[in-house]
């Protein structure tokens, strides 16, 4: 899965000569926590809600002083210029690693050195939920199989008779085993029958629930 397929393709940006007040209003109106800072079409920095809080700590000044400071402070004065980015054609897991390594919540997405989107931890979590098929009704099967050729094919051959397999997630196990989570769309009436057949075929059923 590529970043470009899951990113926010309409990034909200702001010019470097905009004021702190402009950034605060934009963040509030769009319910976002970070703004790529531009000079015309070039990405030159980023400003986050944390940057704003450091500049205008709550309770440190009067409302008038806060207004005066926010309207006279320009983003080029407070923005971070060392911007962490990811390429639009990078794998989604690469983006997740970058966010985790740098302890940030989101970053601009570039293509040919131009900003084309934003990707956040929430976007990546939404992707995970989509892959897991959380929004679809049916059965959720967690089963342990031997990590060897033919086992997955054998499992799916049995399971597909009880519903459409909408997703399969493989978690690496230990001792030559693999833990799989499958989601099946369709009727849940034959759940007990499916579990019995899987056990007879030597599969270790951890859970089989309606979800």
From TrEMBL:
Alphabetized PROSITE patterns for the sequence: CBS (PS51371)
Limits of the CBS domain: 7-63, 79-136
Keywords noted in UniProt: CBS domain
Domain of life: Bacteria
Database matches in InterPro entries: ACT-like_dom_sf, CBS_dom, CBS_dom_sf, Diverse_CBS-Domain
Name by which UniProt lists this protein: CBS domain-containing protein
Organism: Heliorestis acidaminivorans
Lineage: Bacteria, Bacillati, Bacillota, Clostridia, Eubacteriales
